[in-house]
């Protein structure tokens, strides 16, 4: 496998990625990548399901946007209404977006709403789960050439692959056991503790005990928050 990686993969970040151990290391790698290609900011965005009500701030799993920008955006706009968000769910092709793109009114133009001129979006996915993400690069440059676009997309895909395996995959599942995940799934379907007990052949007390553990592991306070976070983190569909 080492020979395969050495002989068949071509990216400039090998040494940095091999040494990356945590989110701070990947923050630096993506930030440096953005600056190298003339962008001021980056973001790693988790897509989820197209029809889910979502906010930009909760979809960003790593970013260096100005403090409070995503949260302020969410107070004024619906991320799911943007043309950019809808396009992400319809195409896996890396794309270049400009604030003055024709045919996109201000109410649906993410760049105008965020205050940037240029955005490059690189769709990526987790090899182990198939979960979809996108690596975003934002700035005020004039444009990006085809060769630079291809090089940026390749580096972003390589960096995300390492980032997911080292940082995000450890978070996936939030430490839930298979039985806890099964109970969580039935809770998301609206089943009561007594109904779940019959379905999975355990006592109602055991179901309630598992539910309390799930609440603690997901760091939420009620079943509604529990299900919402589990869907957002793609623990359940």
Could you describe the 3D structure shown?
- This protein has 237 residues and is α+β, with helices and mostly antiparallel strands.
- Helices cover 49% and strands 13% of the residues.
- The chain is built from twelve helices and five strands.
- Strands 2-1-5-4-3 form a five-stranded antiparallel β-sheet.
- It is globular.
In short:
The chain has helices at residues 2-8, 14-19, 23-36, 56-59, 69-76, 83-88, 110-114, 146-168, 178-188, 193-200, 204-218, 223-232; strands at residues 41-46, 60-63, 95-98, 118-125, 132-139. The protein is of the alpha+beta class and 237 residues long.
Salient structural properties:
237 residues; alpha+beta
Shape: globular
Query: Residue ranges: pLDDT <50 for 5 or more in a row?
Result: none
Q: List SSEs in N-to-C order.
A: HHHEHEHHEHEEHHHHH
Distance between the termini: 33 Å
SSE class: alpha+beta
Q: Say how many strands there are.
A: 5
Our Rg estimate from Cα atoms comes to 20 Å
Write the layout of secondary structure elements.
Elements: H1 2-8, H2 14-19, H3 23-36, E1 41-46, H4 56-59, E2 60-63, H5 69-76, H6 83-88, E3 95-98, H7 110-114, E4 118-125, E5 132-139, H8 146-168, H9 178-188, H10 193-200, H11 204-218, H12 223-232
Antiparallel strand pairs: 1-2, 1-5, 3-4, 4-5
């Amino acid at each position: 496998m080492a020979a395969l990686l050495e002989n068949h993969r071509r990216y400039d970040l090998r040494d940095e990625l091999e040494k990356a151990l945590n989110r701070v290391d990947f923050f630096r790698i993506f930030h440096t990548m953005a600056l190298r290609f003339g962008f001021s900011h980056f973001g790693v965005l988790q897509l989820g399901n197209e029809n889910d009500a979502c906010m930009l701030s909760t979809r960003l799993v790593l970013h260096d946007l100005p403090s409070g920008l995503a949260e302020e955006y969410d107070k004024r706009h619906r991320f799911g209404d943007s043309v950019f968000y809808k396009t992400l769910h319809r195409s896996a092709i890396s794309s270049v977006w400009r604030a003055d793109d024709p045919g996109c009114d201000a109410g649906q133009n993410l760049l105008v709403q965020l205050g940037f001129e240029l955005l490059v979006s690189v769709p990526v996915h987790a090899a182990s789960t198939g979960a979809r993400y996108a690596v975003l690069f934002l700035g005020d440059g004039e444009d990006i050439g085809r060769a630079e676009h291809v090089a940026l997309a390749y580096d972003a895909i390589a960096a995300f692959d390492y980032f997911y395996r080292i940082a995000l995959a450890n978070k996936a599942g939030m430490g839930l056991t298979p039985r806890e995940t099964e109970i969580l799934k039935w809770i998301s379907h609206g089943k009561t503790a007594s109904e779940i007990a019959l379905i999975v052949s355990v006592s109602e007390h055991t179901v309630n005990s598992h539910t309390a553990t799930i609440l603690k592991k997901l760091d939420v306070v009620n079943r509604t928050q529990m299900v919402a976070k589990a869907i957002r983190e793609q623990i359940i569909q």
